[in-house]
Predict the structure of Pyruvate kinase.
Amino acid sequence: MAIAGELTVPCGQISSKIPTFDFKSHISGVPMIYCSGGKLKSRISTGVRAVLQVGVEAAESVGKVEGALGFDVVSEEELREKGFLGMRKTKLVCTIGPACSSLEDLERLALGGMNVARLNMCHNSRKWHLDVIRKIKKLNEEKGFCVSVMIDTEGSQIHVVDHGAPSSVKVEEGSFWLFTTKKFEGSRPFTVQANHSGFSEGIEVGDELVIDGGMASFEVIEKIGNDLKCKCTDSGLFLPCAKFSFWRDGKLVERNYKLPTLSRKDWADINFGIAEGVDFIAMSFVNDADAVRNLKDYISTKSSISIRVLAKMESLESLQKLGEIVEASDGLMIARGDLGVEIPLEKIPAVQEEITYVCRQMNKPVIVASQLLESMVEFPTPTRAEVADVSEAVRQYADALMLSGESAIGSHGQKALSVLRMASNRMETWSRQENRQSMLHHRKLGVSLPDRIAEQICDCAAEMANNLGVDAIFVYTKHGQMASLLSRNRPCSPIFAFTNDRSTRMALNLQWGVIPLFVDLTDDMEANIVKSIDLMKAEGLVREGDAVLVVSDITPTAARSTAFQSIQVKTIS
Ligand SMILES: Nc1ncnc2c1ncn2[C@@H]1O[C@H](COP(=O)(O)OP(=O)(O)OP(=O)(O)O)[C@@H](O)[C@H]1O
Ligand SMILES: CC(=O)C(=O)O
Ligand SMILES: [K+]
Ligand SMILES: [Mg+2]
């Protein structure tokens, strides 16, 4: 135990206020171990390490270093080119559609920084999606990418109307339209089909019918059976499969169609996703936590690997149950497209900020989705307002940004991805320079002692990393818990998460600032640490003088009866 420069603290004394920690009095021969914002390596002698240790003894034996560093080619290249601080923290999700489904296009998106590929099961056939999934797995295996796969369920979308034509139809103010549940082939002038017979239930003459959150508006002037005769009050466009909502006295008319969140088709798609080993299932139109829990239970009985369930926030009801939904799910998507049909558009920015805040508090990753760069579906450059919107999501510390039509059907998908990448990098740099991460506050999450210790260790470690100005944080994690607790603090340095669990690696792809690495880990944590540093050194990815803050957490095993958690600061020699 008597290692020079080692600091042992009983767990009750570990404070989240690391700056008040007086290392000087504990570590002989080290002039100063932390310095705000500056470079640690000039201040600390090579090889000295500080260990905050909770539990029992440090592991001593160091095995022979062998094995491979499971670095994905894109992060590795980024590190070589831009250094630790230049690594992008915000993760990028691309919706895959006909415009980007070839192997070459997928490879270009992977090279451009796509962390997660999203397949929207609303569109196209399962065979088509299968082909894309296989291509992504092939690229991961053969070319060294680390792109996770997400399927997104269709959900029971009852609020859809269609005019029958393949493209958009113009709607003039003052024109009269019939919204009918009667089925017919092709298109009829001034007639729109609703996809659900109960679409007009509870609707009264005088109500307002809004298409796609404001693409066009109508007043209901007559009810004819289930059908509605409406007069256009605000001219605009009808897209195919447009979404609609009804409003009365400025408020959404809430209707409960009593349809399950997952339709029969969704269950078939979920079985398909499980069989193909996807990494995430995004659940559309989640209204409560039960729906999420049911799906998670179902997955745990059907799949030997862990598939993370993301809840999509896209209904008024889901917003009212935000807390329980975040708690039940493995992450959230702010699906601003459909959300904008159910709440006034001007409310979306505040709702987005609230959801990203709650998710970070509860340590769940969050994706900001829809229309981030909508104009790029058509044009090769974004509007200034779109760049401002993207930057705002990054400033809010969302874990991930998502492209929809921009990559799925647009002509400039790769360019849109590079806009997300560059805007993220720029705003992250600004936030770091402004020291904005120091303004983040966290509510305490852990209830059990081990969970509270893990949380304290990670909060302290992140604060130490910032104060010391270390180059990188290394963490060893089985289920990703320690990595995400670190990420929650949005530290300045990148978090390299070493795991020997493949599903954890793929899930961590969605977490802010985490670079997941697949390596063989043993029960001997000290050996794991030495091995991973040596592998990084051998590849030239860490160099002499680099300072790394190492966080480890070993759960009790047959050989070791006590949990052991530590924070060590190592300078590479
Ligand atoms: N696999 C696909 N095949 C064909 N078109 C697709 C595919 N995926 C997406 N698209 C097209 O890209 C557009 C945007 O895609 P996206 O899936 O994000 O739509 P969305 O309506 O926002 O999602 P959701 O239906 O989940 O609310 C869609 O309108 C659709 O035209
Ligand atoms: C992504 C999605 O489902 C939406 O924005 O509605
Ligand atoms: K969907
Ligand atoms: Mg949606």
Confidence is low (pLDDT under 50) at residues 1-50, 54-65. The first helix runs from residue 73 to 82.
